[in-house]
TrEMBL record:
Pfam families: Pribosyltran. It is found in: Cytoplasm. Residues 53-152 form the Phosphoribosyltransferase domain. This is Adenine phosphoribosyltransferase. NCBIfam families: apt, PRK02304.1-3, PRK02304.1-5. One of its GO terms (molecular function) is adenine phosphoribosyltransferase activity. The keyword Cytoplasm applies. Belongs to the purine/pyrimidine phosphoribosyltransferase family.
Length: 178
């Protein structure tokens, strides 16, 4: 399969979560065995190309893709969690959302000092969550080698925001517009 073969496996839901939004639902791709395996394989190839040493996945769908890639490559997996989910002292970062703030946390013991980390998530929109995760991983001692996404919504500017922050960005699929 090619990335173009994967595109029709991502369901588009109009007007969710609010009117005017085209929601790109990757659960239909995950439910397609061959498509999911192909996406994980393609993303794993990109991780190897950038010489990543660990995978960090953003809760929740970043866990699905990130853990599958880490297992395929026999690499460590670092979960970037929502607040209150880790049973150890954590590093935390608050970040801005469209309406309010949110928090991400990581176990600093999960990050090997100086390791090249590839951040994985399912979808890149404005980049706020990914930027916060990169900062958090850097505070924990990691070097964010790249941010890798299944889907990029380029018109929302997230990839450019990450690049301005010194993070290389790749995505398998892009959907112009939003």
């Amino acid at each position: 399969m090619t990335p173009e073969d994967l595109k029709p496996l991502v369901r588009t839901i109009p007007d969710f979560p609010k009117p005017g939004i085209l929601f790109r639902d990757v659960t239909t791709l995950m439910g397609h065995g061959e498509g999911f395996a192909a996406a994980v394989g393609m993303m794993a190839d990109k991780v190897q190309a950038c010489e990543g040493q660990a995978i960090a996945g953003i809760e929740a769908r970043g866990f699905i893709f990130g853990a599958a890639i880490a297992a395929k490559l026999a690499m460590p997996f670092i979960p970037v969690r929502k607040p209150g989910k880790l049973p150890v002292p954590v590093l935390a970062i608050d970040y801005a959302l469209e309406y309010g703030t949110d928090t991400l946390e990581v176990d600093p013991g999960a990050v090997v000092d100086g390791s090249r980390i590839v951040l994985i998530d399912d979808l890149l929109a404005t980049g706020g969550t990914a930027l916060a995760a990169c900062e958090l991983l850097r505070r924990a001692g990691g070097v964010v080698a790249e941010a890798l996404f299944l889907v990029d919504l380029p018109d929302l500017g997230g990839a450019e925001r990450l690049r301005r922050a010194g993070v290389a960005v790749e995505a398998l699929l892009d959907y112009p517009g939003h």
